[in-house]
Specification:
heterodimer; A: 144 residues; alpha+beta; VC0802-like; 2 domains; seven-stranded antiparallel sheet; globular; B: 434 residues; alpha/beta; GMP Synthetase, Chain A, domain 3; nine-stranded mixed sheet; 21 strands; 30% helix
Chain lengths: 144, 434
């Protein structure tokens, strides 16, 4: 019910991001979605990829600090108020979102990758709010 | 002003006094300090083998490592009940180097500092601002009591808060400043930024600088900022020997006069450990001959310098040492504070998220030292949220501050991005140009 997000620590210097994409390209791993957050000195690259375990192992051998984190892929209809609905569901359950980003923006339905500290509670809250989450295999294969 | 008759002893008078004091000091150490007695036994020596200064090179060395192994009181030659003061300085790892003083030791210390202060031009009429950090370091309290002995008034301003330092300097009519040379420059710079002219708006005429070597370039820079009438001397000491008061410059600026009635200096080859002929550059080794609590024998200071034995125009006959030009170990001086890379390594080893590799980058901006510590994260990233990474950086910085006593900038780096070394690691990049 959760999807594995690949998180990579990146120093703010030229070419570092490109080294990550080089590794994934060589592995033939597809990037489904990504978010890059940065401070003055370093950034965190968060990726949903077709084969997260394989990608993580390769990045580690190439000297990156990487980890897999469970996030929720919440399916949302592509209409006004859908994101708001999800946020209400989480807020009602008194849950705090650490970060989120767009996973897929389809014409009818889209999805968000959402990281909440208590993932089990978050799953329950999403379902109680009448929303669906994507299965991992589905999320990794978006656009395929 | 020459304060004590010992400062002008003839060579034979001094040698006789040193020999007598050396012998009695060795005797006390042999009887009261088991670890040094073992060293002497291993070298087949008894106190009676050391009757004169000429015998000193027979004796085994004492090192900072001996202080670490015998932490905290193992090298003390008196019972704890006889102690009146305890100070500490940086150790080579997490634990500090601990030093102690009896009543007599404090008396000698005060006398030695008073001599050096008088040598540097201090008088009983001075108002002295001590901008060394008060606390466990020996610098501030050493100068404090030595200057007080001369009859001077003390403004114990401690270090930091430069604008307040300026207020005291100006409003209290301070005439003598005690600081590190780089802080002396910083104070002048901040004074100028605040619209003061240090040459005319202040009454400071004497500077006693220490706790880090003062190069001739720094002296010239200090003169430029504070004016030609500013008499600035440097002095030398270290807590293991007693603190400031080991040696200091007189008005002729030709090396620092060592209080040789209390300390016997030698210069050795730091690699071979063998004494070098007079005048050669090498590592300073000091034997304390009057200390009761911690009479270190042939202590390897790791400071590189040379000795001058020719006559000084001031009338003092004591041996002089040159400005310290470097170290024979990896100790760093940062804002006058001793820092050993080993201390940093130990802190990092105690933090789960950090690997054992690190790099130090030292810079100097506005006459102030800065240290950046680059730390490698483990390949297994333990968090993927920013607050945790920021918290980690802060945790490293806080722990370093606890151990080192100074603030650092912590930079997180990816695994395997810092340089690796075969053999001796070169982890320090010093960009300070001093």
């Amino acid at each position: 019910m959760f999807i594995k997000q690949l998180s990579v620590f990146i120093e703010n210097r030229k070419g570092r991001l490109e080294e990550v994409t080089a590794a994934l390209t060589e592995l033939g791993v597809n990037i489904v979605a990504l978010s890059l957050a940065d401070t003055n000195e370093y950034g965190l690259l968060r990726l949903i990829v077709s084969e997260p375990d394989k990608a993580k192992a390769e990045l580690k051998t190439r000297g990156f600090s990487a980890t897999l984190t469970d996030v929720l892929a919440v399916k949302l209809s592509n209409c006004a108020g859908a994101l708001h609905e999800m946020l209400v569901a989480l807020a009602k359950a008194d849950l705090n979102i650490e970060y989120m980003y767009v996973l897929d923006s389809g014409t009818e339905y889209g999805s968000m990758a959402v990281k909440v500290t208590d993932k089990e509670k978050a799953l329950e809250a999403i379902r109680n709010g009448g929303l669906e989450v994507l299965a991992a295999e589905k999320a990794y294969a978006i656009h395929h | 002003m020459i304060l004590s008759k010992e400062e002008t002893f003839s060579l034979s008078e001094m040698e006789a006094l040193q020999s007598e004091r050396l012998h009695s000091s060795i005797k006390r150490v042999y009887e009261n300090v088991p670890s040094y007695r073992e060293k002497m036994n291993a070298a087949h020596l008894t106190p009676d083998d050391v009757k004169s200064v000429a015998d000193i090179s027979k004796l085994p060395f004492t090192t900072k490592d001996d202080l670490r192994v015998n932490y905290p009181y193992g090298l003390f030659a008196v019972d704890k009940s006889k102690l009146q003061r305890i100070h500490a300085s940086s150790g080579t790892t997490g634990k500090p180097t601990v030093v102690g003083y009896t009543k007599h030791d404090l008396e000698v210390w005060t006398e030695c500092v008073a001599r050096i202060a008088a040598m540097g031009g201090a008088t009983g009429d001075d108002i002295c601002q001590i901008a060394f950090g008060y606390g466990m370091f020996t610098g501030a309290l050493g100068l404090h009591y030595g200057l007080e002995r001369l009859g001077a008034a003390i403004v114990p301003s401690s270090s930091g808060n430069t604008e307040k330092q300026l207020m005291y300097l100006k409003d209290f009519g301070v005439t003598l400043l005690v600081a590190t040379p780089s802080y002396g420059l910083r104070i002048a710079e901040v004074a100028m930024q605040n619209g003061f002219n240090p040459k005319t708006d202040f009454t400071v005429r004497t500077g006693l600088f220490g706790s880090e070597p003062m190069t001739e370039a720094m002296r010239a820079e200090l003169k430029k900022m504070w004016g030609d009438n500013f008499r600035l001397t440097q002095n030398y000491g270290m807590s293991e020997l007693m603190g400031p008061g080991v040696s200091g410059e007189c008005e002729h600026f030709c090396g620092m006069h060592i209080n040789t009635d209390h300390f016997i200096p030698e210069i050795i080859d730091p690699n071979k450990g063998e004494p070098l002929p007079a005048g050669e550059h090498g590592e300073l080794v000091i034997t304390c001959i009057t200390k009761e609590a911690l009479p270190l024998i042939r202590y390897r200071t790791r400071d590189l310098t040379r000795l001058f034995t020719d006559k000084c125009a001031c009338g003092r006959t004591t041996v002089r040492m040159d400005c310290v030009t470097g170290r024979s170990d990896d100790m760093l001086k940062i804002r006058g504070v001793n820092v050993f890379p080993g201390q940093i390594e130990e802190v990092l080893l105690g933090i789960d998220e950090c690997g054992p590799h690190y790099e130090l980058v030292l810079t100097r901006r506005n006459h102030t030292d800065y240290m950046e510590v680059k730390v490698e994260l483990l390949p297994e990233l333990l968090t993927d949220v920013f607050p945790d990474l920021e918290h980690l950086g802060l945790k490293v910085r806080t722990k370093l501050k606890t151990v080192l006593g100074i603030d650092t900038k912590v930079t997180l780096a990816s695994p395997n991005t810092l340089q690796r070394f075969e053999g001796k690691a070169k982890r320090v990049t010093d960009l300070r140009n001093v």
